[in-house]
Amino acid sequence: MSEKARISIAIDGPAGAGKSTIAKLISKTLNILYLDTGAMYRTVALKAIREGVDTSNREQMSKLVEDIDIKVVYSDDIQHIFLDGKDVTELIRTPEVSIGASNVATVPAVRLKMVELQREVAKQNSVVMDGRDIGTYVLPDATLKFFLTASIEARAIRRYNELLSKGMTQMTLEDVKKDIEYRDKNDSSRDFAPLSKAQDAIEIDTTDLTIEQVVNKIMEYVKEYVY
């Protein structure tokens, strides 16, 4: 990447659309930071689960997040999430935490706390962020915005294969599909910063595209800004 002004790239979309995978590859291609915002919400959910707090209880979650200790640390260009001083990067990828993350993301106090952290990272670095509301709320002035979509069947298969690759065999493909349907409804219907496509976002349907094809499509738009 040439020496130019700091840039920010927002990649939004529903669960299983390929946001994180694509965002990581774009960040490596451009040699800029990748911030997995979903991991931050997962960490809040993990904290709630550990403390026996109902992730759908707004009052309890608002109190829990007041003094939560979450830090994003980069080691060898890999993002690690620390909760209360301990690395929980791998612990936040369970189905239980996924549901909890979708629940806590509907709580305004939680979103405000996480957005504060996310914007601070973007102020200091060129960054690629993926999530549900990056282009519409977190970084409304992002250099480029993309919205990735895919059929629910394709998204379920991707997530199911991801779980299998990590040895998580307790869920069936149908379970994963129901989980995604729940998260889609939750993310799109919340009253604060819901999942939606920014008016100036470039939409890409990834259903029948390979990871490489999606990355190439995005890079076509990015090149004029960074080279």
From TrEMBL:
GO terms for biological process: nucleobase-containing small molecule interconversion; pyrimidine nucleotide metabolic process. Belongs to the cytidylate kinase family. Type 1 subfamily. This is Cytidylate kinase. Keywords: ATP-binding, Cytoplasm, Kinase, Nucleotide-binding, Transferase. InterPro entries: Cytidylate_kin, Cytidylate_kinase_dom, P-loop_NTPase. The keyword Cell inner membrane does not apply. One of its GO terms (molecular function) is CMP kinase activity. It is found in: Cytoplasm. ATP binds at residues 13-21.
